[in-house]
Amino acid sequence: MKEKFSFDGFAPEDFEKHIRQSIPNYSGMRSLIPAIAENFVIKNTNIYDLGTSSGDLLCELEDYLADSLELSYIGYDIADNLLPSMPSKDINFYKRDVTDESLQLFNTSLIFSLFTLQFIDLDKRVKLIQKVYDSLSKRGCFLVCEKIYSSEGITEDIFTFSNYESKIANGLSADEILIKQTDLKSIMKPLTQIENEQLFKDAGFRVVEVFFKSLNFIGWVLIK
User: Fold this and answer.
1) pTM, rounded to two decimals
2) Three-class secondary structure of residue 222 per DSSP
3) Whole-number pLDDT of residue 34
4) What whole-number distance in Å separates Cα of residue 117 and Cα of residue 147?
5) CA-CA distance, 96 to 160, in Å (whole number)?
6) For residues 148 and 216, what is the distance between their CA atoms, to the nearest angstrom?
7) Which pLDDT score is estimated for 36?
8) CA 30, CA 20: separation in Å to the nearest integer?
């Protein structure tokens, strides 16, 4: 019997490699984030990463942004096997379910969620997006990346199989792709681009702007 795909089986460095193999143009998307982020950070505020996985985004931002901003970086993830064991003095990682209603986000100008919302039940997803909006400072930014469904069946098929070809070119086997696709069906609940954007607007975000799109993977800059 083939082993099921599981996030629990990854070490942090292996998970980051797997993500880069799985999402087309992931490295290009990630390269855009620091330059976008610096437009929103406010001195002496907290930067949160919801579903931080290996924590590399916050580590990269700490290196990129000026020390004089005196920022604190906080990453939450429910899978503690992915969290770094030796964070820097300005970064803290915690095992935490980001849908827990007791979770509070304090004094924040910038919040990230990279390919996390798609794994959250819709009612909890709505509450989390609203919490993020309510927690952000004025003109604060929620930077979100998600896998989406295409609103047209023909393009959904084209994008899906194009993504399979990309994964194979990046070193994943056909068996690995099939196992992951089958196992994720029960836990991943992506929406269309229009449906996602309606959730963001309903929460109150006045700017909902796409900064990245590659096949069925999309990133938004949301501004309060």
Assistant:
1) 0.86
2) strand
3) 96
4) 9
5) 31
6) 5
7) 97
8) 10
3-state secondary structure 106-165: CCEEEEEEECCHHHCCHHHHHHHHHHHHHHEEEEEEEEEEEECECCCHHHHHHHHHHHHH
CA distance 46 to 70: 9
pLDDT tens for 100-154 read: 999 999 999 999 999 999 999 999 999 999 999 999 999 999 999 999 988 888 8
Rounded Cα distance between 200 and 141, Å, is 12
User: What residue has token string 């992506």?
Assistant: 190
More confident residue, 89 or 194: 194
Spell out the residues 6+ positions from residue 189 whose beta carbon is closer than 8 angstroms to its own.
Answer: 118, 119, 120, 121, 122
SS3 223: strand
Segment 17-46 mean pLDDT: 90
| Both tokens assigned to 162 | 């194009």
Spatial neighbors of 216 by CB under 8 A, at least 6 apart, are: 147, 148, 149, 150, 156, 159, 160, 163, 190
Q: What is d(CA 14, CA 22) in angstroms, rounded to the nearest whole number? A: 12
Residue in this structure with the two tokens 């991943």, named with its chain if needed? 188
- What is the sign, positive or negative, of the torsion defined by CA atoms of 82, 78, 206, 25? positive
pLDDT at 1 over 60: no
> If you average pLDDT over residues 157-173, what whole number do you get?
75
